[in-house]
């Protein structure tokens, strides 16, 4: 499992030491590798184009000292033709460079985005509990654009410009070493200034990109929560919060602009002063007859040709720093160990450095940290350990695995759980949970608000892993099952029914890998959703809006229930599935659900007696433990806490 540092979003990273920009950028290599030939060719073409630019001053020198001095019009025309050819070749080569990289780099950006999305799907729920969606969105959008821009432009031009400056410096020194030294005098101060700039700009870029992520979160929350904002008239305070963030972002952007202006100023002024100095000195040397006019022209043309490569260093460093920051932010997410490796039986096999025990989120190397099913036999009848009233289950096992006779169904053995972000000295939320739901049995889970019912149910589909103890499904240790196996065995309907921007049918059918269109009707019937789905403009082919907002709460809940039952799961986890239904619909759904529950092993979080009555037995969760197990009537008779909860007194007292 990821440790807290991994699951937590980075705090203010600008306060931390920044990793070297080069090291951050080198991490992009695996993604850039497939297009390396194009990148290197583009760099070579760029260097060639730039060197052609440096030949132009040499042609000028030849023209001034030759045809111009000798008043030879034919030579002047020839020189002009050479210059034109060189100029056209330079332009064509720069165009070719751009063409070479544009398409492959769009592919690199898409591949990185794809990898990020796939990774996000496989990260533990604990990670998503802690990271804001805006931070993730901005890493998958703006940050990746910055990376593509860097690979397309500054990466090549840092190389092209460095080569141009180097070749140009040699040409200057060869033409007239004394003038060359005057021109090269600003190199050392400029290098110092550039390194100071780089450090400062790197921090500013980090701050800006983090603030952009926060801003995205606010926008997203405002859009999704628009009903609450309007309902409570919070648009002014929301707008104020938004303004504060945009103001902070603007301040950071201005700081970047100031830093950029500062380095551009130095990068322009110092070389200009040097060129001025060389011009004065060169003119004196021409006047003294120690230097030809052609050499001075060539010298100054070379110096002017080097102006852009020097001036642009500021821009290129800025873009490089932004890309390095983007790379850091991208890999902060990519470095969080994933929960599972598809196609492997043991979750997380092959993913290095994952999973410290006791942190509460699904682990990728669970077999390492917990003994395997063969090492730790499941207690022969964990139900015997249950602390309170017992009676035979109404449903006997339909088909028990002979190898695990008596341990089939859903078994919690000494399960303990603490959320990864809970204070380390706080007691675990769930302690020593030992519970046996027999094959085919429906167990209701009852407890006060906040007692941990949802948390306990979330352990079954492995949204989180217990911090101690074990859960088994039909005798198989849950921790040894791959993600696909768990998904095939367990279906869940959450308290908050989430629907996706897709058709009703797609939303329901995503509940079962092998679910067919024919299962759709059955699932909708169980959830008593046929009526309203049939009345939708295009029936089950109707698109439901973002998060299914175009449907009522009860309708969404019924579709979520249909999704849970569509795949005929062996284990069904329902978190208060009928809470948003009216009494009449609830009775109809219950009648249909009863038939589904008869064929599955189910754990149903229940708040109301009507839901509890769906179950064969009831487990009472109190103080983080299973305080009692029995039938509804037994618990009503013998357990005052349960009686209070069912009568509503318990909740009212809280
Ligand atoms: N992701 C999380 N990180 C940290 N703590 C959490 C997280 N989710 C829930 N909790 C805490 O765990 C406790 C139990 O929450 P849980 O949702 O399991 O209770 P519940 O019994 O289902 O409540 P309800 O009946 O109101 O739905 C609460 O105190 C809650 O604040």
From TrEMBL:
GO terms for molecular function: ATP binding. It is a multi-pass membrane protein. The keyword Membrane applies. It comes from the Bacteria. It is found in: Cell membrane. The chain crosses the membrane at residues 39-64, 76-96, 149-171, 177-197, 259-284. The keyword Nucleotide-binding applies. Residues 410-648 form the ABC transporter domain. Residues 40-322 form the ABC transmembrane type-1 domain. Gene3D superfamilies: ABC transporter type 1, transmembrane domain (1.20.1560.10), P-loop containing nucleotide triphosphate hydrolases (3.40.50.300). It holds the Pfam family ABC_membrane. Its main location: membrane. Residues 342-384 are annotated as: Disordered. Keywords: ATP-binding, Membrane, Nucleotide-binding, Transmembrane, Transmembrane helix. SUPFAM superfamilies: ABC transporter transmembrane region, P-loop containing nucleoside triphosphate hydrolases. PANTHER family: ATP-BINDING CASSETTE SUB-FAMILY B MEMBER 10, MITOCHONDRIAL (PTHR43394:SF1), ATP-DEPENDENT PERMEASE MDL1, MITOCHONDRIAL (PTHR43394). This is ABC transporter ATP-binding protein/permease. It comes from Streptomyces decoyicus.
């Amino acid at each position: 499992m990821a440790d807290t540092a991994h699951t937590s979003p980075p705090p203010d990273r600008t306060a931390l030491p920044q990793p070297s920009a080069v090291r951050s950028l080198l991490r992009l290599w695996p993604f850039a590798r497939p297009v390396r030939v194009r990148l290197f060719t583009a760099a070579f073409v760029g260097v060639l184009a730039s060197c052609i630019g440096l030949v132009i001053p040499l042609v000028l020198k030849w023209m001034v000292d030759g045809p111009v001095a000798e008043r030879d019009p034919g030579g002047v025309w020839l020189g002009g033709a050479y210059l034109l050819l060189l100029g056209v070749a330079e332009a064509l080569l720069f165009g070719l460079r751009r063409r070479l990289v544009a398409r492959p780099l769009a592919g690199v950006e898409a591949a990185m985005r794809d990898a990020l999305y796939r990774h996000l799907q496989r990260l533990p729920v604990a990670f998503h509990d802690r990271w804001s969606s805006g931070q993730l969105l901005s890493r998958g959008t703006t940050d990746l654009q910055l990376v593509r821009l860097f690979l397309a432009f500054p990466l090549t031009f840092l190389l092209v410009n460095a080569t141009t400056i180097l070749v140009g410096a040699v040409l200057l020194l060869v033409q007239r070493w004394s003038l060359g030294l005057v021109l090269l005098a600003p190199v050392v101060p400029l290098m110092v200034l550039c390194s100071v700039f780089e450090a400062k700009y790197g921090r500013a870029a980090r701050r800006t990109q983090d603030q952009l992520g926060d801003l995205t979160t606010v926008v997203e929350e405002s859009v999704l929560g628009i009903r609450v904002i309007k309902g409570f008239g919070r648009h002014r305070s929301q707008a104020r919060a938004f303004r504060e963030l945009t103001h902070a972002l603007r301040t950071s952007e201005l700081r970047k602009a100031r830093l950029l202006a500062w380095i551009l100023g130095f990068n322009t002024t110092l070389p200009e002063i040097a060129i001025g100095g060389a011009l004065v000195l060169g003119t004196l040397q021409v006047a003294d007859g120690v230097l030809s006019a052609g050499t001075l022209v060539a010298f100054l043309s070379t110096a002017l040709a080097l102006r852009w490569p020097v001036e642009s260093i500021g821009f290129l460093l800025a873009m490089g720093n932004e890309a390095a920051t983007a790379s850091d932010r991208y890999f902060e997410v990519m470095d969080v160990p994933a929960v599972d490796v598809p196609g492997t039986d043991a979750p997380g096999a092959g993913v290095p450095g994952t999973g410290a025990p006791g942190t509460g989120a699904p682990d990728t190397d669970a077999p390492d940290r917990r003994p395997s099913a063969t090492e730790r036999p499941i207690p022969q009848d964990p139900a015997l350990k249950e602390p309170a009233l017992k009676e035979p289950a109404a449903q006997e096992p339909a088909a028990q695995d002979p190898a695990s006779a008596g341990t089939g169904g859903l078994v919690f053995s000494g399960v303990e759980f603490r959320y990864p972000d809970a204070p380390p000295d706080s007691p675990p939320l769930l302690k020593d949970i030992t519970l046996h739901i027999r094959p085919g049995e429906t167990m209701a889970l009852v407890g006060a608000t906040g007692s941990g019912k949802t948390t306990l149910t979330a352990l079954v589909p492995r949204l989180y892993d217990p911090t101690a103890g074990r859960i088994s499904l039909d005798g198989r240790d849950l921790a040894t099952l791959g993600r696909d196996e768990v998904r095939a065995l367990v279906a869940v309907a959450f308290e908050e029914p989430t629907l996706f921007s897709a058709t009703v049918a797609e939303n329901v059918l995503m509940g079962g890998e092998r679910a067919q269109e024919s299962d759709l009707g059955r699932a909708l019937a169980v959830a008593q959703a046929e009526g309203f789905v049939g009345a939708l403009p295009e029936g089950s082919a109707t698109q439901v809006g973002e998060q299914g907002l175009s449907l009522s709460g009860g309708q969404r809940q019924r579709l979520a229930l249909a999704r849970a039952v569509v795949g005929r799961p062996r284990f069904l986890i329902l978190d208060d599935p009928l809470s948003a239904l009216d009494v009449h619909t609830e009775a109809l759904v219950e009648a249909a659900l009863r038939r589904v529950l008869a064929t599955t092993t189910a754990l149903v979080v229940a708040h109301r007696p009507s839901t509890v009555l769906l179950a064969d037995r009831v487990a009472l969760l109190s103080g983080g433990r299973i305080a009692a197990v029995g039938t509804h009537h037994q618990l009503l008779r013998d357990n005052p806490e349960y009686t209070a909860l069912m009568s509503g007194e318990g909740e009212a007292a809280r």
